[in-house]
Design a protein that fits this description.
Layout lengths: L5 H8 L5 E7 L2 E3 L3 E7 L16 E6 L11 E10 L2 E18 L4 E8 L6
Antiparallel strand pairs: 1-2, 1-5, 3-4, 4-7, 5-6, 6-7
Length: about 120
């Protein structure tokens, strides 16, 4: 669990806040070019089946074309919160690309990725 200071808690609980999504691909952090991030956590409900694996997924849409990506490439997803004492970044997770769609007409890139649980058998 993260050690959240008072300024972070105040920023999260404020009626208005500034939160930025971040995606790191090949060591380059992309923030300004993100249209949306849809994160689905693998943990839901209050039951867990022994032997089952639960994988989290993320769908990301960018406002630009991102060339040179390959399936199974590692990406990191995080978010940043503006607080009274600066910017605090929290990692959501590391994911592997499963689908890459380049829309050359609209100049957008859509990525689908799954976390490391996808590789457990």
């Amino acid at each position: 669990m993260f050690n959240n200071n008072t300024s972070y808690q105040e920023a999260i609980n404020a009626p208005s806040r500034r939160i930025t999504g971040n995606v790191t691909i090949k060591g380059q952090k992309l923030s300004d070019d993100i249209s949306s991030i849809d994160y689905v956590s693998s943990i839901s409900g209050n039951t867990l089946t022994i032997g089952a694996t639960n994988a989290s997924t993320v769908d990301i849409k960018f406002k630009k074309l991102i060339e040179g990506l390959a399936e199974r490439e590692l990406i990191k997803v995080s978010f940043s919160v503006q607080t009274s004492s600066g910017i605090v970044e929290r990692q959501i997770g590391e994911f592997f690309l499963t689908e890459i769609k380049l829309d050359r007409n609209n100049k957008t890139t859509t990525l689908k990725a799954i976390d490391k649980m996808a590789f457990f058998k």
